[in-house]
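Lab notebook page, bench 4
Experiment: in silico fold of construct C2
Operator: M.H.
Input chain length: 210 residues
Purpose: comparison with the prior construct
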Amino acid sequence: MITFAVHGIGKPQRALDPGEDERWITVEQFDALLDVVSRSGARLTFDDGNSSDVEIALPRLIERGLYAEFFPLAGRVGERGYVNRDGLRQLVDAGMHVGSHGWDRFDWRRLDGSFAVRRELDEAPRLLEELSGTPVRRFSLPEGRFDRRVLTHLREAGATRVYANVGSVRGAALVRSRTEIRSDLNPRWAEAVSRKSRRWTGPWMARPRR
């Protein structure tokens, strides 16, 4: 089953980092993507922890009974244009899963030294656990790429699931591939990609609250 990776939706509430606008889609594009997800059973993840995760995506997911995983940047939680603690709690209360995208936008293949490893793979998920009130053991790889050293660090950090970009997964049972949604999103493309993925097994529905 295919997994789509979404970043920002709608009008950004902050200045975007260089190249980030290529991953930002309109509300109309997102609604069209949700139509595809509802029909095909595709999965959804959200990276960076943009405020649009809660303001735009969450109400629409709830309305359609869809489940998604959210991977904020721990070092930017609470900053302008990003989710805050209340937003993280809203995601969890709605039955969504919160994982870690690291501390900041940094390619983990370039991690050097114990401080960098601790900050990205230990401190980031620990902070997100405290803020969201739920265990954080799933990770979304910044830049979507990894090597053997990164996998070793992730296993040592207790990761149970790791998302990477399509084409970077080579026999690593821990890692799941994703297809990134970009600003030139065409719903017909998303529909075609979904059809080529595993046979439909029904929508990825939100888990009931306890």
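Observations: The chain is about 35% helix and 15% strand. The longest strand covers residues 43-48.
Next step: discuss at group meeting.
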